[in-house]
Amino acid sequence: EVQLLESGGGLVQPGGSLRLSCAASGFTFSNYVMSWVRQAPGKGLEWVSAISTSGGSTYYADSVKGRFTISRDNSKNTLYLQMNSLRAEDTAVYYCATPPTAATVWGQGTLVPVSS
Amino acid sequence: DIQMTQSPSTLSASVGDRVTITCRASQSIGTWLAWYQQKPGKAPKLLIYKASGLESGVPSRFSGSGSGTEFTLTISSLQPDDFAIYYCQQYNSYPYTFGQGTKLEIK
């Protein structure tokens, strides 16, 4: 079964750090550009970051640039998002996803509340 | 960055209606546009890719059109399962950006 499974979410204090993981199965992970997309409670979708198939190129939204780092381990079929200097406005459900082409795959999301 | 603007923000319609949602890009994106449907508590579901490509398993009542800066998503005959929020997304250039969403409500 083609699947993406996020993990690592949870309550974190402002200024804290968290690393999200996204485990892929059922498809050739190393062939796909991967992205993170987030959704704050009651709000719309926000694209966060993307990484090339090799990991050599990374892209970020201005809102997270300098604080978040995307990476991947193709040997483990896993995507990561290291989130530092977290702010209340980073509170959201974080999804990992393949590109919007035929047979795209999205995970179920992991919630990251940032609060003291 | 490319800004994506959807209209309307809310649309009230009845089962059987034909509805159209518009998405405008602040600069040309060719046909690098996707449409998603999202229901409460669920991940977005891809409906249309590359402006008019129907994702596998998506009913044929959904269709997309457009190129450049103006795009539309049409549902030919609304079904009860179609009441949801719809988003467009450009993937012509980073940062990829989403429209603000269109909430399709039951009239």
Topology of this protein?
The complex is a heterodimer of chains A (116) and B (107).
Chain A: E1 3-7, E2 18-25, E3 34-39, E4 45-51, E5 58-60, E6 68-73, E7 78-83, E8 92-97, E9 110-112
Chain B: E1 4-7, E2 10-13, E3 19-25, E4 33-38, E5 45-49, E6 53-54, E7 62-67, E8 70-75, E9 85-90, E10 97-98, E11 102-106
Parallel strand pairs in B: 2-11
Antiparallel strand pairs in B: 1-3, 3-8, 4-5, 4-9, 5-6, 7-8, 9-10, 9-11
Question: Gyration radius of chain B, to the nearest Å?
Answer: 13 Å
Largest sheet of chain A: 5 strands, antiparallel
The count of helical stretches of chain B stands at 0
Number of strands of chain B: 11
Radius of gyration of chain A: 13 Å
Which outline of chain A best applies? globular
Give the N-to-C terminal Cα separation of chain B: 36 Å
Q: Structural class from helices and strands of chain B?
A: mainly beta
Oligomer: heterodimer
Q: Give the rounded overall mean pLDDT of chain A.
A: 97
| Distance between the ends of chain A | 39 Å
Biggest interface found: A-B, 22 and 24 residues
User: Given the helix and strand composition of chain A, which structural class is it?
Assistant: mainly beta
Strand content of chain B: over 45%
In DSSP terms (H or I, runs of 4 or more residues), the helix count of chain A works out at 0
Query: What are the segments of chain B in which pLDDT stays under 50 over at least 5 consecutive residues?
Result: none
The biggest sheet of chain B, with number of strands, parallel, antiparallel or mixed sense and barrel status, is: 7 strands, mixed
How many beta-strand segments of chain A? 9
Amount of beta strand of chain A: 35-45%
**Strand neighbour order, sheet with most strands of chain A:** 5-4-3-8-9
